[in-house]
Amino acid sequence: KAKPVLVERYRDGAAKRYMLDGDSKRKVQWEKHDSSMNTAEDENVKSSVPRVIRDFVLPAGFPESVSDDYLQYMLLQFPTNVTGWICYTLVTSSLLKAVGVGSFTGTSAAASAAAIRWVSKDGIGAFGRILIGGRFGTLFDDDPKKWRMYADFIGSAGSIFDLTTPLYPGYFLPLASLGNLAKAVGRGFRDPSNRVIQNHFSKSGNLGEIAAKEEVWEVGAQLFGLSIGVLILLVFRSRTHQAYNRHTQLLL
């Protein structure tokens, strides 16, 4: 019995199946697929959703500019992302409690309050990604490398706001939100540009491998940067401790 090895689907609904039979002989089979159901669904969305919202959340030229299963995939992916962020909120509260936030009061109220402030800054920052993806999505195909560089600069600049939060703890939420907003804007520039760049590098149909190897580079840079950051914190803590001891000795 022939087994399918690869299936190519085309925008007109046709499918091309590559199969191997018991004698390891390759067979190619064309299939016509009735995509009227998906097309009707896309047309219903196009007619029922206001143009402003449609242009913001859907690619230009929808539904002709995307594959038939695009909308279905996005609708299925949305609730899984929502679930992930619910878990993130609860996990943040648990982690803050585990490292000692609220330990002096004996309750989890302080950890919950800190978690609310923490995820609030993430929520405000998320508006930056919505803005970039909704209004500037057509920019990344023209010069993706330029926007990729802009993304790194904007993201690094956003860290300045985070670094000033210990100096002005009363303004933690606005400062952290501004920092997260800038970093979210940077990520909004980075991710789409990255996909275009990866597609450019993939000359042998090996887009998955290109993305995987780039992940290796990014994780390597992440581990290296984390190591340097921890080293800086250790040196800073050591010097602060020495200064505190000298100050205590002078008082005595």
What secondary-structure arrangement, pairings included, does this model have?
Elements: E1 3-9, E2 15-20, E3 26-31, H1 36-48, H2 51-57, H3 70-98, H4 109-135, H5 144-163, H6 172-201, H7 207-251
Antiparallel strand pairs: 1-2, 2-3
Domain Protein root UVB sensitive/RUS: 46-241
Transmembrane segments: 216-236
Keywords: Membrane, Transmembrane, Transmembrane helix
Describe this structure in words.
- There is one protein chain.
- Strands 1-2-3 form a three-stranded antiparallel β-sheet, with no helix packed on it.
- The chain is mainly alpha-helical and 252 residues long.
- Helix content is 68%, strand content 8%.
- The model has no long low-confidence stretch (mean pLDDT 72).
- It is elongated.
Short description, anyone?
Residues 46-241 form the Protein root UVB sensitive/RUS domain. With 252 residues, this protein is mainly alpha-helical. It has helices spanning 36-48, 51-57, 70-98, 109-135, 144-163, 172-201, 207-251, and strands at 3-9, 15-20, 26-31.
Spatial separation of the terminal alpha carbons: 90 Å
Strand order of the largest sheet: 1-2-3
What is the CA-atom radius of gyration, in angstroms?
Answer: 25 Å
Q: What's the total number of strands?
A: 3
Question: Roughly what is the average pLDDT, rounded to an integer?
Answer: 72
Secondary-structure element order, N to C: EEEHHHHHHH
Helix-strand category: mainly alpha
Low-pLDDT segments? none
* Count of individual helical segments: 7
- Sheet with most strands: 3 strands, antiparallel
What does the overall shape look like? elongated
Q: Give the % helix.
A: 55-70%
**What fraction strand?**
5-15%
Family: Belongs to the RUS1 family.
Domain Protein root UVB sensitive/RUS: 46-241
Protein name: Protein root UVB sensitive/RUS domain-containing protein
Keywords: Membrane, Transmembrane, Transmembrane helix
